[in-house]
User: Fold Sepiapterin reductase from Fistulifera solaris.
Amino acid sequence: MKVLIVTGASRGLGRSIALAFVKQFCSFTPTAQETWKICLLARDQAALQVTQQFIHEALPSNQNITVNCHGIDLGQIDDLSDRIESFLAELSSESVSELYFINNAGSLGPIGPCRNTNLQTMQSNFDFNITSACWLSARFVQWANETMNCPKTVIVNISSLVAIQAFPSLGMYSAGKAARDMFHAALAQEEEDVLVLNYAPGPLETDMTEQIRLAPLLDSSLRPHYQKQLVDPDDSAAKLVDILFYQKFKSGQHVDYYDALE
Assistant:
C-alpha cells in the first residue's frame, strides 16, 4: 500500500495538493496489487469531507484508492501525540511501500510589528507552526523507518519565500517558516534514505492571502504586492507533484514555485 498524508487538507493549498496527487495517480495504469490510501488531516471535519468529495468525483471507478478524513487539531499540543499514535496504529495494520507526507498545515499568526507580540500569542503560534509541524515530520519518519520498514519515504514541508527573506510586519510568520525549513534541512542530512523537500508554493490566492490584505498592521510597503495577480493553488500544487514524481530536487533543498518554472 502507498500512503499520502496531507495536513491542512480542508481548504486552500492542502486541498489542491490532494487533488493534484489524485490526478497524477490516475495518469498511471495501476497494477492489480497497487493500492493508495489518502489521509486528510485538519481540525475542520466538515471541510475535510468536502475535499474528500472532490477527490471521489475526480476518481475513475477502476482506481484502487481510499480516502479517509481525520479531524485532528494540530495546534492542540497537549493531546497531539495520543491522536497521532491512534492514527498511526490504524495505518500500521497494512504494509506500507511508499509514504508521502505533505506537512502543509500552518497559520499566519499576528501581522504587525514584532515588538507588539505578547508572550502567550507567540507561544501558541509557535506551538502550531513549529513544534507541531516539526514533530510530525520527525514522528512519521521514525514510524516509516522503524515500525513499517518503508522502502520509500518522502517528506514535504510547505515553506515560503519569507523563510529565507525578511519582510516587515510578517516576523512571526517568517520565524515559523524559517525554523521549519532548517529543521527539515537537518532531517534530510540525518536520514539519507528519506527524501525531504522544502517547497515554497509562491504567493497564493487563498483565504490566508485575504487575511494579509485585510490586516490593518500590514506594512504599507507590502500592500501593492498583494494587489497583484497571485498564483492559483491548483497550479502550484500541480508543480509540486511534478517536482516530486520526477524528483527534480536534492533532498533538503528549498525549491520555490517560480524556480521550478524556469
